[in-house]
Amino acid sequence: MTRSDEAAGPDMWRAMLALSAELSGVEMIRALVEGRVPHGEHHRLLGLRYREADPGRVAVDWTPPAALVNFAGSGVHGGYIAMAFDDVCGSACASAGERAFPVITLNLDIDFLRPVRPGRPYRLDAELVHGGRQRMIVNARVLEPTDTLAAQATASMIVNARSSDR
Prior knowledge:
The protein is α+β, with helices and mostly antiparallel strands. It has helices spanning 3-8, 10-19, 25-34, 41-46, 78-94, and strands spanning 48-54, 57-62, 103-112, 122-131, 135-143, 149-159. It has a single domain (3-165), classed as Hotdog Thioesterase (Thiol Ester Dehydrase, Chain A), CATH 3.10.129.
């Protein structure tokens, strides 16, 4: 485990490492949903709770805390929305593998359609649309409780070649 892993949530990383040899990618994300793997510190910071996972698809409940509001006070800062998208897109990729694997984001393209308000419940959905051997493409959405689209993203990702160093 590296120093950055410790900062991201040592309990989460330890639990994932302990299970990595026996669980598929979707089983690892489901272990997070079920609480067998604790949510990381970045999940707590953002207000994310993983709700369900299928191969190539994840759903996350998101209640962004007030600390994420932008300078103008009009909604959650776009950088935090990008961070949430990055997390769920990577999880959708990892959920498709024979084993859970870390990914690196090559590109994250976001359309902000309406403000994401702190303290309100949202759902983040991410789905793998291309699972190539090297490059993966994921579509993701932030939805209000009424299923109104607040933001959407497309990410391209690759498997972290250094993941065997973990």
